[in-house]
Design a protein that fits this description.
The complex is a heterodimer of chains A (118) and B (183). Chain A is built from six helices and two strands; from the N terminus they run ααααββαα. Chain A is mainly α and 118 residues long. Chain B folds into two domains: 68 residues, no CATH class; 107 residues, no CATH class. In chain B, 28% of the residues are buried. Classes of the chains: A mainly alpha (118), B alpha+beta (183). Chains A and B meet through helix 4 and strand 2 of A and helix 2 and helix 4 of B.
Chain lengths: 118, 183
């Protein structure tokens, strides 16, 4: 299913932080993991991912270390910082508030119960 | 080579040159990883590279976004510090005029210190104007008529010669007249 792009902006950094909360990854792995976990709904372009990652690094939400792979390539592995973890919690709760509100409006009351459980 | 062209197009947008090397390596690795994956799926090398580049997205837009991340920003802590220092120095300048005493020595010493810190901010001789502006402001508050201050200008980044700038500040009919000469 094609997803309207404007729905994704803003939540992408939350998705990235969430991926990194599970362990360190380099950019290529993040795109693959995101596509896999979302059943190919999210196909993030590298041109979007790297500016985002570098921005998160500048904000101190993620950090990176460089490691040499067996094929000689030096990879930048990103990982989440404690500050990033706090930001992730915050973004998640905002997202849940937003989603429950949308559901309430769309489904006229039914979504309220669903959102409360999640 | 199309990959190099892509990387060059990205970097052309990033004004902070120090970021170029790591961006080239990171994005270059990404294209290589993606192209390898396509080749494993049975694509020809050239097709794999072309397809991998297409998946990267627009290089100009990518470069612009990265440039936004690395845009030079003023260091507010350092700026506040120098502003505070400047204020203290200006205060001593006013006291100099008021008392013509030992504060004159302190003031010139302070001005030297102030100007020594400003080139760190790569302001070059802007330090002179900042200094004079502050002193002028303090003077106008005190309604004194004139003051001459020498400001040492330290070696600038663009190879400006170091030297001494002499500024004379005269208040005439409520207007501040700034006159400066280089020694």
């Amino acid at each position: 299913m094609e997803i309207d792009k404007s729905l994704l902006t803003g939540s992408t950094s939350m998705l990235i932080l969430n991926l990194l909360a599970e362990g360190e990854l380099y950019g290529y792995q993040m795109i693959k993991a995101l596509a896999e976990k979302s059943n190919n709904v999210f196909s993030l372009k590298a041109g979007t991912l790297y500016p985002l990652l570098h921005g998160l690094t500048e904000q101190g939400l993620v950090t990176f270390c460089e490691k040499q792979a067996e094929n000689g390539r030096v990879r930048k592995y990103y990982s989440i910082t404690p500050k990033g973890n706090r930001a992730l919690m915050d973004k998640k709760s905002q997202w849940n508030t937003f989603m429950s509100a949308v559901n309430r409006v769309l489904e006229g009351g039914e979504g309220f119960a669903c959102a409360e459980i999640s | 080579m199309p990959v190099q062209r892509f990387l060059d197009a990205v970097c052309a947008q990033i004004r902070w040159k120090e970021a170029h090397k790591s961006v080239i390596r990171e994005l270059g690795n990404h294209v290589a990883d993606q192209a390898e994956a396509f080749q494993e799926e049975g694509m020809e090398e050239a097709d794999a590279i072309r397809e991998a580049l297409r998946e990267m997205g627009d290089p100009v837009e990518t470069g612009r976004q990265l440039d936004r991340v690395y845009r030079p920003r003023p260091d507010w802590r350092l700026l506040t510090l120098t502003a505070a220092l400047g204020f203290i120095i200006s205060l001593s300048a006013v006291l100099t005029v008021a008392t013509q005493s030992v504060f004159y020595v302190l003031n010139n010493l302070g001005v030297c210190l102030f100007d020594a810190t400003l080139p760190l901010l790569s302001y070059g001789r802007a330090s002179f104007f900042v200094n004079m502006g502050l002193i002028g402001l303090m003077l106008s508050v005190c309604r004194r008529s004139s003051l001459t201050v020498d400001t040492p200008v330290t070696q600038g980044r663009q190879g400006q010669s170091g030297g001494l700038l002499r500024g004379r500040y005269t208040f005439l009919k409520g207007r501040l007249i700034i006159d400066m000469t280089e020694k």
